[in-house]
Structure formats: C-alpha cells, structure tokens
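Hi C.,

You asked whether I'd gotten around to modeling the 238-residue construct. I have! Everything is below, sequence then structure, no commentary in between.
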Amino acid sequence: MTDSKRQIVVLGGGGFSMEPDNLALDVYILKQARWSSPLVCFIATASGDADGYVVRFYGAFSKLDCRPSHLALFRRTPDLRNFLLRQDVIYVSGGNTKSMLAVWRDWGLPDILREAWETGIVLAGISAGAICWFDVGITDSWAGRLVPISCLGFLPGTCCPHYDGEAERRPALHDLISRRAVPTALALEDGAAAHFVGTELLRVVTSRPEARAYRVQVQEDRSTETEIPVEQLARHPV
C-alpha cells in the first residue's frame, strides 16, 4: 500500500496492448495503488469502447493480482462519479484523443477524474491515455498529420508517445518545439513509462532495454533533446 497521493503513470507504448507477453509496465502501475489486489477500471473511450481492446484488457489483468472492470460510454452508462471513485487505478486506452476528450467533456468526466486523482486513485494510460493528462499532447487523431491538442492539464507541458515507434514523431515534435508552438515536451519511446507524483516526474521505468525518454525544449531558438535516466523493470511474463 502507498500513501494517498496524486499519481499518474503514462506509457509511451507497451503494456498489455503492445507487449502481451511482458506485463511489466502494467504490474508497475498496480504496485502504485493504495491497496493490494486493487480495483482497476479500464476506459477505452478513445477506441470507441472496442470490444477486442476490452477483451485484451481482461485477458491480461485477470492474470494479475487485481480486480478488473471497465467503463463503457457507448452503451448504457453507470453513475460515473460513484463508479470511478470506488476504483484504485483508472487505466485509459489508446485511440483517437480528440474524440475521447469530446465524449469525456460531454459526460463531465474531467472533473470526476481530477477528483479521483486528488483522492489518491492512480491514473494511467497509453498513447491517447498518456497524453490526455497533460496541457498539450501530440496526436494523430487527424489523418495524415501530427498536431498538438489541448488536453486536461493535470500535468504541465507537452507529451509525445511512440517517439521511436513512428518515424514522423521525432521530427514533428522538434518542429513544433523550435517554433514554440508547444511548451517543453516529455517524449516517450515504446516500452517507457513516466511516473508522476503530484506534477513532478518521479522516475521513468522501461519494459525494454532499449526504451528511452527525453526532455525536448527550446534553447537559443533551437529544439534540443535531453535523455532522461530510466530504470529497467524485471520482465513479467504472462
């Protein structure tokens, strides 16, 4: 059990949806919860509540020491505040960030998620589910281009996932940073996860030996990239 504190764990890529044979990042998230065998809610709004994604979540998390559930917003929806504030971990999927945020805002979910965070429920997510917590995220929600999108603002700055997994990510982010179109960015490669306590970065952990994380910012009107130290987790096979 950990003390009640505001925690967010963001995955640039990896976890059960990308590394089904190594759940090291997912286990790390569970270990940050206040209790053993935590209640874990999966929110797959960004994928349109895709059945296959939800099934993969249950297939992975049913093998871990937790009690999994999911929240559907495209079917009959429960009392959101009552349901979410009972959780210990809220884990958000990848997908279309713009569509996810639009649906969340219509349901009043941002205020509930902030309350959950402030009461010690661990927030986590991959890709869209990672960038959504920042001031700004780099998204491919629009076909054919990467653009910044205003997000929830729980964490300061910009976040860019899949930094090594998609060839256009690095040059697009450097262009945006050099033009001062977005604030200083956290760039996460696939297999890297950043753990925030409050709004401060505590550590970056990885499920792959080659996974890296970077701080990308403007210095003397140029974008610069500084590597952030990482800690590799022990492999956790299914």
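If it helps when you're writing up: The chain is about 25% helix and 30% strand.

Thanks,
B.
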